[in-house]
Specification:
Shape: globular
Number of strands: 0
Strand content: under 5%
Structural class: mainly alpha
Number of domains: 1
Distance between the termini: 28 Å
Helix content: over 70%
Radius of gyration: 20 Å
């Protein structure tokens, strides 16, 4: 913080927009730098994603070979390969698992320091998570995609709007996933130990986000219900369906809009839960 004006380190309704943007950017950069220090873990994670990419791809291609018409869920083999390999690359970008920063700080009591800072906890953690996602995009996204392109061949977008929609979808996926993880971690305010909710989140998010298999393999009524009533398909299924152009342009854009709505709802819910938790701590004298 040396050489930085203290006024820049405040994000609040009374602070200037330029100061708030500068502070938010500094927090994003700090999140990026934090994960950039783990070079060996980054390389090992990329290698692991590639190994599981081969396993998942061969399984889904075997399913396609045995499906009537060779198009399970409406995907051809090239779309399935793209779905798998880009999904493996997005894992570290979206960051479904492994984040326990908030629950750990609640359990140890260090969260009190977060509440004393001029930056709202949700804003500070979101900025750091965006930095983490940017690091994952630059380091963990490319290797699985390259491996898939070399060994299987991936589908290239045919519509001009697919690439910008996919980029937007990634941003909404990162924000939505952060909000979900924040809510799960925040249960520690009441339970004092969030390992149970975190374990449930690990199981549910992998299945309902489209990690283990495309949700389009499920019955249509169940797929639509999951998409409309939960934010989880927006974490992986939506960006991947947008990229492989599983649907027409109108549906493609509609899925991104639905994903954006869910991201805003979940982020707002995280802010509400955080305020309620702070009032709870104040009532208890914390």
């Amino acid at each position: 913080m040396s050489g930085t004006d203290a006024r820049v380190l405040t994000i609040s309704p009374g602070s200037g927009s330029r100061a708030s943007i500068a502070t938010f950017g500094a927090l994003v950069w700090s999140g990026f730098r934090r994960y950039a220090t783990y070079r060996q873990a980054t390389a090992a994670g990329a290698f692991t994603n590639i190994v599981f990419g081969f396993l998942r791809c061969y399984v889904l291609l075997a399913v396609a070979a045995g499906a009537p018409g060779g198009r399970p869920g409406g995907y051809d083999t090239e779309q399935l390969a793209t779905f798998v390999w880009v999904g493996q690359g997005l894992l570290a970008v979206v960051g479904i698992w492994g984040w326990t920063d908030l629950s750990d700080r609640i359990r140890t009591g260090d969260v009190a320091a977060d509440l004393l800072r001029p930056i709202p906890p949700v804003t500070a953690y979101l900025a750091a998570d965006l930095g983490r996602g940017l690091h994952g995009l630059l380091t963990r996204f490319v290797p699985p995609v390259v491996a898939g392109a070399v060994f299987f061949g991936l589908r290239e977008p045919e519509r001009w709007q697919t690439v910008p929609l996919f980029a937007l979808s990634i941003v909404f996926a990162v924000v939505g996933c952060f909000g979900c993880r924040y809510l799960v971690n925040a249960t520690a305010y009441w339970l004092h130990d969030a390992r149970g909710p975190l374990g449930f989140w690990t199981l549910a998010s992998g299945v309902l986000a489209g990690l283990y298999f495309p949700l389009r393999l499920l019955p249509d009524w169940l797929t639509v219900t999951l998409w409309v009533s939960t934010p989880l398909p927006g974490l992986l299924q939506t960006p991947l369906d947008v990229l492989v152009e599983r649907d027409g342009p109108a549906v493609q854009a509609g899925l991104v809009v639905l994903q954006a709505i869910w991201a805003m709802i979940i982020l707002k819910a995280a802010q509400i839960v955080q305020r309620r938790a702070e009032r709870k701590l104040m009532i208890q004298g914390g």
